[in-house]
């Protein structure tokens, strides 16, 4: 997200997202950072180690990720976003899937509800503030994950590790993404996105 300070801070407000999804009411989808074509092999291999894993997609937006996971065999899935306009749109678009308005920093799910929590650029948003929302989201993720669970964080930042703290073991993968070649004479090189695989440390 190559953006200036003012815009970056917008990404951490619920109003920004609520307005954004209110103005995009057509059937278009938008995937931040990376699509399932690029992400799928890594996620598939990881989630296949669980038996019918219960999955939480946090900050689902209007991306195709939940539908892609479902079609890839991972149908025990709930997708949340704190923008009601987003969830309303997704329920209409894809009523077969489970969608809920939830704030990731104070989820209503019981402890140890999920085998996997998937985050594509939601922690990126929460990390644009100087308040403690990213920390509260991490604590909530730790709480709702089973002890054997996994938190998959897809980010544009290769420097997230420092913020994860001592509760997790962290593996970082790089995924190369073609940013559009040299269309129109503008040089757009291959870039890297980062996938963090976090497991709870034994206490
Ligand atoms: C950068 S978008 C990513 C959307 C989608 N995951 C994707 O990959 O295209 C971040 C999403 O996180 C949601 N979000 C941000 N903070 C949140 C929070 N505290 N709780 C739930 N959703 C949140 C926003 O509404 C937005 O839809």
Automatic annotation (TrEMBL):
<dbReference type="GO" id="GO:0008168">
    <property type="term" value="F:methyltransferase activity"/>
</dbReference>
<dbReference type="GO" id="GO:0032259">
    <property type="term" value="P:methylation"/>
</dbReference>
<dbReference type="InterPro" id="IPR051419">
    <property type="entry name" value="Lys/N-term_MeTrsfase_sf"/>
</dbReference>
<dbReference type="InterPro" id="IPR029063">
    <property type="entry name" value="SAM-dependent_MTases_sf"/>
</dbReference>
<comment type="similarity">
    <text>Belongs to the methyltransferase superfamily.</text>
</comment>
<dbReference type="InterPro" id="IPR041698">
    <property type="entry name" value="Methyltransf_25"/>
</dbReference>
<feature type="domain" description="Methyltransferase">
    <location>
        <begin position="55"/>
        <end position="149"/>
    </location>
</feature>
<keyword id="KW-0489">Methyltransferase</keyword>
<protein>
    <recommendedName>
        <fullName>Methyltransferase domain-containing protein</fullName>
    </recommendedName>
</protein>
<keyword id="KW-0808">Transferase</keyword>
<dbReference type="Pfam" id="PF13649">
    <property type="entry name" value="Methyltransf_25"/>
</dbReference>
């Amino acid at each position: 997200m190559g953006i200036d300070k003012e815009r970056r801070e917008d990404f951490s407000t619920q109003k920004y997202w609520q307005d954004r999804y209110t103005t995009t009411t057509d059937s278009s989808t938008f995937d931040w950072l990376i699509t399932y074509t690029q992400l799928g092999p890594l996620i598939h291999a990881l989630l296949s180690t669980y038996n019918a894993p219960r999955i939480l997609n946090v900050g689902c937006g209007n991306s195709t990720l939940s539908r892609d996971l479902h079609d890839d065999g991972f149908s025990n899935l709930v997708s949340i976003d704190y923008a009601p306009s987003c969830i309303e749109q997704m329920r209409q678009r894809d009523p077969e899937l489970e969608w809920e308005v939830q704030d990731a920093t104070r989820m209503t799910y019981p402890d140890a509800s999920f085998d996997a929590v998937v985050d594509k650029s939601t922690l990126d948003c929460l990390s644009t503030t100087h308040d403690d929302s990213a920390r509260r989201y991490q604590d909530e993720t730790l709480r709702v994950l089973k002890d054997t669970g996994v938190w998959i964080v897809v980010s544009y930042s290769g420097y997230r590790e420092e913020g994860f703290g001592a509760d997790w073991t962290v593996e970082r993968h790089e995924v190369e993404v073609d940013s559009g070649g040299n269309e129109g004479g503008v040089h757009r090189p291959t870039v890297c996105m980062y996938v963090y695989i976090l497991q709870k440390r034994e206490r």
